[in-house]
Amino acid sequence: MPAQPRVAVVGAGPSGLYAAAALLASEVPVDVDVLDRLPAPYGLVRYGVAPDHVKMKSVIRVLQKPFADGSRVRFLGNVRVGEGGIPLEVLREHYHAIVHASGSSVDRALGIPGEELDGSHGSGAFVSWYCGHPDFVDLDPLLDHPGVVVVGAGNVALDVARVLARGHAEMAGTDVPDRVLETLRGSAVADVHVVIRRGPEHVKFTPAELRQIGELEGVQVLVHDDGALSRGTPEAVLDTMERRQKQNLTMLTEWAGHEPGDAARRIHLHFLRTPVRLLEEGGRVAGMVVERNEVRDGKVVGTGQEETFEAGLVVRAIGYSGEPIPGLPYDERNGIVPNEAGRVVDGDRPVPGAYVTGWIKRGPTGVIGTNKGDAVETVASLLDDLHTLPDPEYPDPASVVERLEAYGIEPVTWTDWERLDAEELRLGEARGGAERVKVAELGEMLAAARSRTRV
Ligand SMILES: Cc1cc2nc3c(=O)[nH]c(=O)nc-3n(C[C@H](O)[C@H](O)[C@H](O)COP(=O)(O)OP(=O)(O)OC[C@H]3O[C@@H](n4cnc5c(N)ncnc54)[C@H](O)[C@@H]3O)c2cc1C
Ligand SMILES: NC(=O)c1ccc[n+]([C@@H]2O[C@H](COP(=O)([O-])OP(=O)(O)OC[C@H]3O[C@@H](n4cnc5c(N)ncnc54)[C@H](OP(=O)(O)O)[C@@H]3O)[C@@H](O)[C@H]2O)c1
């Protein structure tokens, strides 16, 4: 008799959890294991979404639904698939199909001199630090200089600028770990320079996020656009613009008229500036040299004129790339696993039983909700193929846990995660005014998750 279909989802971020929900809703009963290398679920919802975006984090109420009591979906946290964990070819022996939902967590580089200096970080590392990701507990960025440079014109650049410009008292009401809060308490940051290589009409910000920096207590936004906004946008260009871009332009035009005031901190939006090199002093970052650009025949071109921003910290928020998954084809250029409607392909041949969803499928763009339709598409491909996929060698659900143990891996179950979750809520109450406080150190996360053994 054929075994009950069993599917592993690798990655408990939004795309993996939307895939689990879609599998659970299928007419064919499917058993699903969701594996994540961390003891906590939710991927970038937990380790990317800014701590002060509390409402956004409430999406976890939807994402956790597949793990409701009695469900056919199991959480196996603290399980890395690939190097240093369970090899993919071993995992394949336990499932009909595997959905890879491991995201794109590698910071892209600018490729300019000085990028490797102390005090220069990618947004992946910097955001992970303030979000309490166990891999970045020790990043301890130096916030002892009044200047900071953030490169990029996407929402991540705005998140980083906003977190650095907010007073530490406001951040105390968020879930940032105590150690992060301590660093923010001692912050000397007064001027956050956001370096944007193109003009105001080209920013990737969403208006809601842009508006938020204008509403920060004790923070003034200053726009440096070399007069681009006051010259206005040609009617023909305006006609081609999305509503989002027009809303951004309206806000930026208003701010461009601001005179510097006596705010405690400032966020400077510097348009038409390309990073050229980082400056060093005493073995760490001391600033960034940028080249001023201009628009000629609709194209952004360098003028050869340089400008320097003094800074003790540089964060590049210029996007991410995926990581190759050993045993699967990889598209280096786009940083994704090649696929057709979620089916992994090697050239034009599908790789049987291998699927992708989320950022590793389509690249590092899109909000949380974008991953839902994406996961539904992948799961539809998988369910269409199910009758063609051979039974795995070890179809018994218990066999996976035994196999993991053979690799020295003790998975964190959903009940374990709920214990860690409860501990974080307790810490939030203890801090006062915070819904939760993250436990960031891996050993402490595991101890809280498995605290039953210590009672
Ligand atoms: C800094 C930042 C802030 C953002 N803020 C917002 C926001 O406010 N609102 C919004 O709508 N969108 C936001 N987004 C976008 C949103 O987070 C993404 O669209 C979404 O998280 C992508 O989902 P994913 O599941 O593909 O990847 P991820 O969320 O990255 O999840 C991948 C999961 O895979 C796990 N994993 C990776 N490798 C392995 C492995 N080898 N073995 C096992 N597990 C593995 C990881 O631990 C992780 O849990 C933000 C993105 C970033 C980078
Ligand atoms: N609140 C939210 O909803 C929220 C919060 C955070 C993230 N997100 C989403 O998550 C996704 C990722 O966000 P993101 O900010 O990482 O990416 P993004 O939106 O793609 O922005 C990347 C920015 O980096 C710039 N850039 C790239 N290479 C550069 C270089 N070499 N030099 C200078 N600038 C460079 C790009 O400029 P060019 O345009 O000139 O290439 C762009 O402005 C997005 O879809 C975003 O909307 C959403």
Write structural notes for this entry.
This protein is of the alpha/beta class and 455 residues long. It has two domains: 6-105 and 322-412, Rossmann fold (3-Layer(aba) Sandwich), CATH 3.40.50; 107-319, FAD/NAD(P)-binding domain, CATH 3.50.50. The protein is built from 17 helices and 18 strands. The strands form four sheets. The protein has a seven-stranded mixed sheet, with helices on one face. Strands 6-14-7-8-10-9 form a six-stranded parallel sheet. A three-stranded antiparallel sheet has the order 11-12-13, with no helix packed on it. The longest helix is centred in the C-terminal third of the chain and has 18 residues, at 414-431. The mean pLDDT is 95. The structure holds flavin-adenine dinucleotide and NADP nicotinamide-adenine-dinucleotide phosphate. The site of flavin-adenine dinucleotide (FAD) has 34 residues, from helix 1, helix 7 and helix 14.
